[in-house]
TrEMBL record:
GO molecular function: acyl-CoA dehydrogenase activity; flavin adenine dinucleotide binding
Domain of life per record: Bacteria
Species this protein is from: Sorangium cellulosum (Polyangium cellulosum)
InterPro entries: AcylCoA_DH/ox_N, AcylCoA_DH/ox_N_sf, AcylCoA_DH/oxidase_NM_dom_sf
Domain Acyl-CoA dehydrogenase/oxidase N-terminal intervals: 16-123
Stated name of the protein: Isovaleryl-CoA dehydrogenase
Length: 265
């Protein structure tokens, strides 16, 4: 994948961004957290608030309409959001720090220019489905050439934000063993079938499903990048810190609550 080199916010801008995240977390997410946990999906007003604060484009390079924040700032924002509402932060992560940066690092410049401004602004919401490519054994999603196009067959076992997301970044295995990432609208007719929402031990409002792909057609204009398994492994290592922000945010909020209760005794 070609590297993206956004200009990170200056120190003062980063501080302002964190303050914006704290304000949104306190005023919008935290008061509704218990209700959101019991809901079928994250409220769309949460996503609109995140978009209005620029937090859906936080890790998208500025040249494509995002804020171009460095990874450490994006992680701190995610930690703040998770401390207020874990499931909203989890859904935001799929779009803001998974899908958008992945597209931005890809090889398809025309695709970046076409979709990233709309994703960064929140006009469209994107999720991801590629954890299965890390599994050993036969590929769960196969990508086969079909003339100038490609066809995807198989099962995406985990996809978060169904019913919220307009698009998804999906990965599959090519005949030569390399991995390909593509962007597809989730409204692809009979070629994509979603399961009922999966019952999880927590975060059921994440609207997580599995997808069955039946000869899903994608054109070359939808291809994000092709990587080897070695490149994929290096990408996985580089991205380990981002999901940890969710746990740190929840743990920090729990510690703060216990401290507050202790002061009242």
């Amino acid at each position: 994948m070609s590297p993206a080199s956004p200009t990170p916010p200056a120190g003062a801008d980063a501080i302002a961004l964190l303050e914006r995240a704290r304000e949104l977390a306190a005023l919008v997410l935290a008061p509704a957290a218990n209700t959101t946990d019991q809901a079928d999906s994250v409220p769309r007003e949460h996503l609109r608030a995140l978009a209005g604060a620029g937090l859906l484009g936080i890790a998208t390079p500025a040249r494509y309409g995002g804020l171009g924040a460095p990874a450490r700032v994006a992680r701190e924002v995610l930690e703040i959001l998770a401390g207020a509402c874990g499931v909203t932060a989890f859904v935001q992560m799929q779009h803001a720090t998974a899908a958008c940066p992945l597209i931005a690092r890809g090889d398809n410049e025309a695709l970046k220019e076409r979709v990233l401004p709309r994703l960064a602004s929140g006009e469209r919401f994107c999720t991801v489905g590629f954890s299965h490519v890390r599994r050993p054994g036969p590929p769960m999603v196969r990508i086969e050439p079909d003339g100038d196009n490609l066809r995807l067959h198989g099962t995406v076992p985990w996809l978060t934000g169904h019913g919220i997301a307009d698009d998804a970044v999906i990965a599959g295995t090519l005949p030569d063993g390399r991995l390909m990432y593509v962007l597809t609208p989730l409204s692809a007719g009979d070629s994509i079938e979603a399961s009922p929402p999966l019952r999880l031990s927590a975060m059921n409002a994440s609207a997580t499903v599995s997808l069955t792909l039946r000869a899903l057609r994608v054109g070359p204009e939808q291809v994000i990048a092709t990587v080897t398994r070695e490149q994929q492994a290096a990408r996985d290592v580089a991205g380990l810190l981002t999901p940890a922000a969710l746990s740190l945010g929840a743990a920090g909020a729990a510690a703060a609550l216990l401290a507050s209760l202790a002061e009242r005794r």
